[in-house]
Amino acid sequence: MKIKHSEFVISNTDFNKCPKADKPEYAFIGRSNVGKSSLINMLMGRKQLAKVSGRPGKTQLINHFIVNNEWYLVDLPGYGWAKVSKTDKSKWAKMTKDYLENRENLACVFVLIDSRHEPQKIDLEFISYLGENRLPFAMIFTKTDKQSPNKSQSNMAKFRKALAKDWENIPPCFLTSSAHKTGRDEVLDFIEEINGE
Ligand code: GTP
Ligand code: MG
Asked: What are the tens digits of pLDDT across the range 154-188?
């Protein structure tokens, strides 16, 4: 898919205030600092569409972007940030759960996973939650430029193996690097395929 246009629309804490649910929507979620905002910029071919930061917890709202006037892309705050208070954690959980469980045009949730690590409980738990709620998802393994291709492949294989315990058919997985701009066509073509369904 060619990206002809991408534009920020609105930030919300309340899913009820999100744009009218009249276009397919793709949400990006994962641990704080996993590279969600960087990936969104890489996919859109923009430097600073979504705000990037070395400090975890940068994205704190539900951020809507419109792409090619055809679909919505959503940058969500990261989970598992140790430094936030309990109150903030439950605020995050409520906002995100309300959004995920009620947004009727949600076509796919992209779960971002750091390709440098072996399977982490928090990511596996989040995927179980998506499964329990029958939410369609795919996985994106980020920051592959940080180690050898073999290491990224092996961590992805371990993750798939961990999922195989619960899942008969494991959803698609993508390897990406926002720094090296790899995996872009694969993710965009996948979105195009779903949009065409
Ligand atoms: P929160 O909004 O805080 O949850 O973080 P996020 O998941 O949006 O991460 P963000 O895109 O802000 O990136 C976090 C840090 O990782 C930044 O310092 C980025 O420059 C860096 N980063 C993101 N993606 C990549 C990548 O593919 N390769 C490398 N080397 N660094 C990356
Ligand atoms: Mg972010």
From this structure: 999 999 999 999 889 999 999 999 999 999 999 99
> Which CATH code of 3.40.50.300, 3.40.50.970, 3.60.15.10, 3.40.50.920 fits the domain covering 6-195?
3.40.50.300
Domain ranges of the chain: 6-195
Ligand 1 centroid from CA 116, angstroms: 13
pTM above 0.80, yes or no: yes
Ligand index nearest the alpha carbon of residue 56: 1
Per residue, the 3-state secondary structure of the chain, as one string, reads CCCCCEEEEEEECCHHHCCCCCCCEEEEEEECCCCHHHHHHHHHCCCCCCCCCCCCCCCCCEEEEEECCCEEEEECCCECCCCCCHHHHHHHHHHHHHHHHHCCCEEEEEEEEECCCCCCHHHHHHHHHHHHCCCCEEEEEECHHHCCHHHHHHHHHHHHHHHHCCCCCCCCEEECECCCCECHHHHHHHHHHHHCC
Task: Pick the residue whose CA is nearest to atom 23 on ligand 1.
Answer: 35
Q: Which residues line the pocket of ligand 1, CB cutoff 6 A?
A: 32-38, 52-54, 56-59, 77-78, 142-143, 145-146, 177-179
Q: Which ligand is nearest to the CA of 39?
A: 1
pLDDT of 111-151, one tens digit each? 999 999 999 999 999 999 999 999 999 999 999 999 999 99
